[in-house]
């Protein structure tokens, strides 16, 4: 296996492995070859696609969701990938291959990306609720107050689900735009009117928080991580192959590199196609949203609704505007995912039943063996015990001749008689070890000959 950038000892250990025997995640994360171009680069990725994942992880993840977190099939959300997916592109399409693979080589979606998708949908809903749009006609104070109240209630739900940081409640702007997503969605003219009741509602929801009388109320809010945990999304079904090669073509490399001779981006440059792998469409991912401190059923259902809408409206990962990373969260996909979970649970129940039966049979056999041994004379029980010993511990017992009782010696002699090859080897190489046993065996009634 060609691993030119791996450490010497790693390269030596792996050079005997074929590509298909290599860990897929290790191949893409540690054995990148950014210097390759054109066909050599394509061949590198083709070799990477030959590596395999360990599908057992998909089953164990479902087991964790059900047994570890108590998630029922109806609690989970399923979405089928409709186009190729690219996650983890920040480091470049060579170094991490545009993929997010776990240590078992399975494509997954990090929880941070899942949360970001749901939050984007929630912010969009707040923006479209009337706060971020300019009213089509002048509003009277009653209509405006009602709109502010509705937006404040929605903002509270968003804040409680996703949490907030230092800047989320501020007025700070950059290039004429609010830094805070909350403020952006509410609109410059309405931000103060919406923020104040929203902050009061949050203090009421968390009575242990005490405002600082020396600051504006919103500055007294502590940072909050959110009442909902968005877990990583793993596939419950995957197409074959689960990864595909894709290509992006840069038509103006010199222009983007800042070459002044190409400042007008003339159509004289040769296009440069760059290949990279992507997650194939057809994957059915399972999304789990788990309640944390202060989360009620209404907030949890709201978080799930935002996630579903976000997956279908905005998608996930890179290049969503070009059609990548879009999902189908229809009822048909939900039913398909739940059926997969039910099959998994049924399989696990059958395995658990088989394990229970096997354990019961083993216990029955062990009990029968204990009862059989209890009925045997003492020297025969010791014989069975010594017969099961390997060579080295058996020889260690032989050296304890003077410490043994008559029943133990009698049992050991019977075991030694069965171990004929051991007796022959001791007679030839360790006569001092076998002699006291030979003398003892001849005195038994009837005598036993060890040779």
List its salient traits.
451 residues; alpha+beta; 4-stranded antiparallel β-sheet; 10 strands
Question: Outline of this structure?
Answer:
By secondary structure, the chain is an alpha+beta fold. It is built from 16 helices and ten strands.
Can you give a write-up of this model?
This protein folds into 2 domains: 53-242 and 280-375, no CATH class; 378-443, no CATH class. 50% of the residues lie in helices and 9% in strands. The protein has helices at residues 8-14, 24-30, 38-50, 56-68, 111-131, 141-162, 181-186, 191-205, 253-256, 297-313, 331-375, 378-387, 391-398, 406-418, 420-429, 431-443; strands at residues 77-81, 173-174, 177-178, 228-230, 234-237, 243-250, 272-279, 284-287, 289-291, 327-328. The strands form 4 sheets. A 4-stranded antiparallel sheet has the order 5-8-1-10, sandwiched between helices. Strand 2 (173-174) and strand 3 (177-178) form a beta hairpin. The protein starts with 7 loop residues before the first helix and ends in an 8-residue tail after the last helix.
């Amino acid at each position: 296996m060609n691993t030119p950038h791996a450490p010497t000892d790693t390269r030596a250990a792996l050079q005997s492995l074929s590509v298909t025997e290599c860990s897929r995640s290790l191949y893409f994360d540690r054995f990148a070859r950014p210097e390759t171009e054109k066909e050599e680069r394509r061949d590198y990725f083709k070799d990477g696609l030959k590596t395999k994942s360990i599908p057992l992880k998909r089953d164990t993840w479902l087991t964790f969701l059900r047994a570890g977190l108590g998630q029922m099939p109806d609690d989970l959300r399923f979405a089928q990938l409709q186009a190729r997916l690219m996650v983890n592109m920040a480091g470049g399409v060579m170094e991490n291959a545009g993929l997010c693979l776990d240590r078992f080589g399975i494509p997954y979606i990090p929880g941070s990306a899942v949360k970001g998708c749901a939050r984007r949908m929630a912010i969009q809903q707040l923006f479209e609720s009337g706060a971020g749009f300019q009213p089509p006609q002048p509003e009277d104070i009653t209509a405006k107050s009602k709109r502010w109240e509705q937006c404040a209630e929605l903002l509270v739900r968003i804040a409680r689900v996703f949490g907030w940081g230092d800047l989320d409640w501020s007025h700070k702007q950059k290039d004429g735009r609010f830094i805070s997503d909350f403020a952006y969605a509410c609109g410059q003219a309405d931000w103060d009117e919406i923020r104040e009741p929203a902050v009061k509602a949050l203090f009421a929801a968390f009575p242990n928080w005490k405002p600082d009388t020396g600051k504006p109320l919103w500055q007294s809010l502590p940072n909050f991580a959110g009442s909902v945990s968005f877990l990583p999304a793993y596939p419950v079904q995957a197409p074959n192959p689960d990864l595909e090669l894709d290509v992006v073509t840069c038509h103006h490399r010199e222009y983007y590199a800042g070459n002044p001779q190409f400042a007008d981006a003339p159509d004289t440059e040769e296009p440069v196609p760059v290949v990279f792998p992507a997650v194939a469409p057809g994957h059915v991912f399972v999304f789990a949203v788990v309640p944390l401190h202060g989360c009620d059923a209404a907030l949890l259902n709201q978080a799930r609704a935002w996630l579903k809408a976000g997956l279908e409206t905005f998608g996930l990962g890179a290049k969503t505007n070009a059609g990548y990373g879009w999902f189908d969260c229809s009822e048909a996909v939900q039913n398909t995912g739940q059926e997969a979970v039910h099959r998994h649970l049924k399989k696990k129940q059958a395995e658990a039943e088989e394990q229970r039966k096997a354990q019961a049979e083993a216990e029955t056999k062990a009990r029968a063996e204990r009862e059989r041994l209890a009925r045997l004379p003492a020297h025969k029980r010791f014989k069975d015990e010594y017969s099961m010993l390997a060579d080295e511990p058996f020889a260690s017992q032989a050296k304890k001749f003077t410490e043994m009782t008559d029943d133990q010696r009698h049992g050991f002699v019977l075991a030694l008689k069965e171990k004929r090859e051991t007796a022959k080897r001791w007679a030839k190489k360790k006569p001092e070890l076998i002699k006291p046993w030979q003398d003892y065996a001849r005195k038994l009634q009837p005598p036993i000959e060890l040779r």
